[in-house]
């Protein structure tokens, strides 16, 4: 019997009945994907009723719905702007995510003005331009190759600065690994705030660095187009692509 064939009750806690609100997960097309149908189940346990436990369970289900089960990569955006307060909140949430040695190498450029967004469109691969032309916000997730200069402030207990400063290979690997993670924290923070998001790796990184990051010497890792969800529900994102089964992607040793 494979993992996806086992009854929900036999899965570990995080896969059990509290993963989605009724009807919400279907929006993410989970029922049709082998191995993911159990995530589309509505809450079933006794705690789903009243009281603090029930409230907590409903909140957990709502969190999982907006972060994972119902959320889809955006195929359109509302033209409503993403206000400066929301942008600051995005960073305030993302910066709480963990990084190795608290090195926090990610740097973010929030592209909101019409002229900067127009220049950004020119740096995208042609197949990506139409998808993000309406996005009111483009975020460049980048990294500071000299991130270690901030370590005396970020981690005063450990003398890590010179360790990274004297090893280019180590500092490059550390900057890339952790800025990618921090970009993912920002993606999930945006989802939690109700924003539609489209991460993008199809772009000309040297051009983006030249246009937007040259003064700071930061490097571009990937982009995230963001905006409030489109009011136009006539064209959705299409069926969700399959994911690897537990047996294909995981080892239990
Ligand atoms: C790092 C990264 C880069 C991506 N680059 C592109 C891209 O250049 N163009 C595009 O259309 N989608 C891009 N995507 C979107 C993925 O194809 C999409 O998130 C994935 O198929 C899952 O879709 P779902 O969230 O609707 O299930 C990218 C996603 C990630 C995480």
Automatic annotation (TrEMBL):
What is the E.C. number?
1.1.1.298
List the molecular function annotations (GO) for this entry. Answer: 3-hydroxypropionate dehydrogenase (NADP+) activity
Nitroreductase domain location is 71-228
Task: Quote the InterPro entries the UniProt record gives.
Answer: Nitroreductase, Nitroreductase-like, Nitroreductase_HadB/RutE
- Region Disordered, annotated ranges: 35-58
Tell me which UniProt keywords the record has, alphabetically. Oxidoreductase
Q: Which NCBIfam families match?
A: PRK05365.1
What is the protein name for this chain? Malonic semialdehyde reductase
């Amino acid at each position: 019997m494979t993992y996806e064939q086992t009854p929900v009750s036999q899965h570990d806690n995080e896969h059990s009945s509290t993963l989605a609100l009724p009807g919400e997960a279907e929006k993410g097309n989970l029922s049709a994907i082998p191995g993911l149908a159990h995530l589309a189940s509505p809450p079933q346990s006794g705690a789903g009723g009243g009281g603090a436990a029930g409230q907590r369970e409903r909140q957990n289900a709502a969190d999982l719905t907006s972060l994972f089960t119902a959320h889809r990569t955006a195929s359109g955006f509302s033209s409503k702007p993403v206000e400066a307060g929301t942008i600051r909140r995005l960073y305030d949430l993302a910066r709480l995510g963990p990084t190795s040695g608290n090195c926090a190498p990610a740097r973010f450029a929030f592209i909101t003005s019409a002229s900067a967004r127009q220049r950004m469109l020119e740096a995208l691969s042609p197949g990506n331009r139409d998808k993000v032309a309406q996005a009111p916000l483009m975020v460049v997730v980048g990294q500071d190759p000299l991130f270690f200069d901030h370590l005396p402030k970020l981690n005063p207990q450990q003398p890590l600065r010179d360790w990274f400063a004297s090893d280019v290979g180590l500092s490059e690997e550390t900057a890339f690994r952790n800025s990618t993670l921090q970009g993912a924290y920002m993606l999930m923070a945006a989802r939690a705030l109700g924003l539609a998001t489209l991460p993008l790796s199809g772009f000309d990184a040297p051009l983006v660095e030249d246009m937007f990051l040259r003064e700071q010497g930061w490097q571009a890792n990937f982009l995230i187009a963001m905006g409030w969800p489109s009011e136009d529900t006539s064209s959705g994102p299409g069926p969700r692509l399959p994911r690897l089964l537990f047996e294909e992607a995981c080892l239990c040793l």
